[in-house]
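Q: For a teaching session next week I want to show students how multiple molecules come together into a single three-dimensional assembly. I've collected the sequence lines for a complex. Could you give me the predicted structure tokens for the whole thing so I can convert them for display?
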Amino acid sequence: MPFPMDAKAILKDHIAKIVSLTDEQFDYVFSHFKQQSYKKGQAIISEGDKVDCEYFVLEGCLKSFYINDEVKMFILQFAMPTWWASDYNALYNGGRATISVDCITDSQVLCLNSADREKLCNEIHPVEHFFRWRTNKGYVAAQKRLLSFMNNDARHRYEELMALYPALYNIVPKQLIAAYLGVSRETLSRLYNS
Amino acid sequence: MPFPMDAKAILKDHIAKIVSLTDEQFDYVFSHFKQQSYKKGQAIISEGDKVDCEYFVLEGCLKSFYINDEVKMFILQFAMPTWWASDYNALYNGGRATISVDCITDSQVLCLNSADREKLCNEIHPVEHFFRWRTNKGYVAAQKRLLSFMNNDARHRYEELMALYPALYNIVPKQLIAAYLGVSRETLSRLYNS
DNA sequence: TTTCGAATGTGATGTAGGTCACACAGCAAC
DNA sequence: GTTGCTGTGTGACCTACATCACATTCGAAA
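A: Of course. Below is the structure for the complete assembly, covering every listed component.
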């Protein structure tokens, strides 16, 4: 399958869960997205890049991550189909990327330019509503994860993650799961062998 | 000073930094806010409450926090003037509060009902834009804090916090700063005595 | 002024998880 | 096949921080 069944239908479905657009409106919105394929391991946003798009995942799996001075990686998010990813700080504040995004598996995405997003939000009120909803969801999720970090130990966070996204276990190397949980791969390995 | 100089002017200013509203529009928006005073230590949202408002701080300082089974407190946010606070998860998903909000000092706030917020967002496009912007800012901040948790030790996070909000040091008991940093009060105490 | 409670400091000790080291997979390219 | 590279397990340590216990300071109430 060279392409996901139907990029347009997937996005339409996703948006329709939150707001109602007429077919004309949606066609117009969709015309601003650009479909792209990436190979496993390929970078979408690298540290230092100018960031001007956000990415809607159609197929595959992305990660957004930060690498510190000791070259240690921390994963902010795994992005599965119908999730969005970007360096939102750079995207909104116009700076260079500090967060990188790349492909864990071969992936299909739709890119939306930031200027276009703002234009669409401006022109079509429900689109702005959609993006407010989406960002709000991200915000609540980030707060939850923050609390989990303060509250729970590594084993607890591991079990939480597996309960929430059991699919990850098979798709994602454990190294990356460790980088998401904020523990060393050694510790993670010891966690589920006991 | 029984009341902040002018609640209306403060909110107007705050919103005007992001979007332009006509005076009529703003008056209409403002008419949905309810001003309230709280005493130091007073609860605004308690665990288990039905949550239907968010709070804009005019004066004073609030905290939003979570208390776990071992009765240990974790602080999500200190809300200073012109900041917003609530249990956004409960507010948007209609559940009961798991996050509490109370007053660190005597405070003046403006309350906005969630139904009213949605109504205003619907009726006045720029208002929706404002709230998207605000939520986005919160989202980016939460992600930054997450990274800081994964990346930095307690001392680093402490210095980060003090650099960002030096005012906190004088206003807020160190216990609470510890609860924000996610360390014990003892550890925090040892941090800055060395 | 005294008294009481809350907030803070400080020592002794325990532990989760980090780091380093090395071994052993599995898979891709040749 | 063999060479590598990337992922994973496992042991021996080490360190940051938690916890418990008790001392001290400070502010508000009496």
